[in-house]
Design brief:
By secondary structure, the protein is an alpha/beta fold. The chain folds into 2 domains: 147 residues, Aspartate/ornithine carbamoyltransferase (Rossmann fold); 157 residues, Aspartate/ornithine carbamoyltransferase (Rossmann fold). The chain contains 13 helices and 9 strands. β1, α2 and β2 form a beta-alpha-beta unit. 49% of the residues are buried.
Length: 317
């Protein structure tokens, strides 16, 4: 492990949820990612994971998650092995805990992109190597980490910012809500009836936000959520595994498009974020996604830089 890594990061074990760590740890991880990005851009990043192997287990398709982790391992001098679920059979062909034990004996880290969050909990419960949540039905902490890194780069700090999420109360929204509360960013979410964030997440986030002097607003009116926002964030209306609900969801979310008219409700300097992939002209219009206020592709690139920093912390010990 490099000597310039903050001591507060040295005790990190797994990365399953934004709720697993206190604010100082997440803040230090974000700042570490920003600094490592600068080293990478200047050609001074050291290959500190030489000989290390990351197993990548995928139950769901991926672009940014796989590309980010695999490229990061190569850049740090290590290797990544892609394991598709039709080969592994998580919880089907083989018991989840048995899979964790086998991978632990052959690799130095495991990133899993799974359907059920419970699978990650079981993997981590017996794994002797770090386990990283590459996405689950409950949370997407790697996305939230990259998002907060992007916000930090653009605004310089988190204090007094407001993030408005327009859309489904899904895994991305859940992780963003938790991260925002933790870092003192006020969070507002607008979702149609039946698609709001779950009560348990909101209760936890509000408890944390009270300590960080932030707020959490839930509404079914996009304009209310977007009012005076610094960041407007959206995601697809139908996530992977929900394809049979697509027609119903398109009807329910018809008034929840992020467009130029909605952007007028936000602050003049407000930025646009989207975790991608985007369904253009559905949840977001071309002109907004490709416009001068969009941070979407900086945000996508930061999946690489934030995940590389995470790998250095977890696998470099």
């Amino acid at each position: 492990m490099q000597s310039d890594m903050p001591d507060i990061l040295r005790n990190m074990r797994h990365f399953l949820s934004m709720r697993d760590y206190e604010a100082p740890v997440i803040e230090a991880l974000i700042d570490f990612g920003v600094k490592r990005k600068q080293l990478f851009k200047s050609g001074r990043l050291k290959q500190v994971l030489q000989g290390k192997i990351l197993a990548m287990l995928f139950q769901k398709s991926s672009l940014r998650t796989r590309l980010g982790f695999e490229a990061a391992m190569i850049q740090l001098g290590g290797h990544a092995i892609n394991l598709e679920d039709h080969q592994v059979g998580l919880a089907n062909r083989e018991d989840v805990k048995d899979i964790a034990r086998v991978i632990s004996s052959m690799c130095d880290g495991l990133m899993a992109r799974v359907y059920a969050h419970q699978s990650l909990i079981e993997l981590a419960s017996v794994s002797t190597i770090p386990v990283i949540n590459g996405l689950s039905d409950w949370s997407h902490p790697c996305q939230a980490l990259a998002d907060m890194m992007t916000i930090r780069e653009h605004f310089g700090e988190f204090k007094d910012l407001k993030l408005a999420f327009i859309g489904d109360g899904n895994n991305v929204a859940r992780s963003l809500c938790n991260a925002s509360a933790l870092l003192g960013v006020s969070f507002a979410i607008a979702s149609p009836s039946g698609y709001a964030l779950d009560a348990g997440v909101l209760e936890h986030a509000r408890s944390v936000a009270n300590q960080t002097k932030a707020s959490v607003l839930v509404t079914d009116q996009p304009a209310e959520a977007a009012a005076a926002a610094d960041i407007i964030y959206t995601d697809v209306w139908t996530s992977m595994g929900q394809e049979t609900e697509q027609a119903d969801r398109e009807k329910a979310f018809a008034g929840f498009q992020v467009n130029a008219e909605l952007m007028k409700r936000a602050k003049p300097h407000a930025v646009i974020m989207h975790c991608l992939p985007a369904h253009r002209q559905q949840e977001i219009t071309h002109d907004v996604l490709d416009g001068p206020q969009s941070l979407v592709f900086q945000q996508a690139e930061n999946r690489l830089h934030s995940q590389r920093a995470l790998l250095e912390v977890l696998l470099g010990q």
